[in-house]
Design brief:
17% strand; 39% helix; 5 strands; alpha/beta
Length: 132
């Protein structure tokens, strides 16, 4: 089995490091963790990760523009995207479909539980998260 690669995008560097460690050590995945959305777009095109996990807690038009760009680039439009959002319920299924987002995880989810939540959304199976 090949190791999955996740592009994890979060604006807070401290949170990004903690979550990245959980995704690596608990999820067993390779993680690319850029400092900005423009770096993330470059990394998505160059690395073609198995999934993109985007923290949407600091919602801005930049996030929507980023998702739109992912959807229009042939290199990235097939990469599944998972959002981490406060309250997770405020996106309707129609909005998620329009954004081409696979699913949403509430941002109150513990970083320790995040790999399992991501694996479930991506249908990667629970065994992926047993790297503990």
């Amino acid at each position: 089995m090949t190791t999955k690669t996740i592009l994890f995008i979060h604006c807070n560097s401290t949170v990004r490091e903690v979550v990245q460690d959980c995704l690596i050590y608990l999820g067993g995945w390779q993680v690319i963790s850029p400092d900005s959305l423009s770096d993330a777009l470059h990394d998505a095109i160059e690395s073609r990760p198995d999934a993109i996990v985007l923290n949407f807690s600091g919602i801005s038009t930049d996030h929507f523009a980023f998702l739109n760009t992912l959807n229009t680039q042939t290199e990235t439009q097939q990469i599944p995207v998972v959002l981490i959002v406060p309250g997770a319920k405020w996106f309707s299924s129609q909005q998620l479909q329009q954004l081409n987002v696979l699913g949403v995880i509430d941002d109150s989810t513990s970083p320790i539980e995040l790999p399992l939540a991501i694996a479930k959304l991506l249908n990667w199976g629970e065994e992926v998260c047993l790297a503990r």
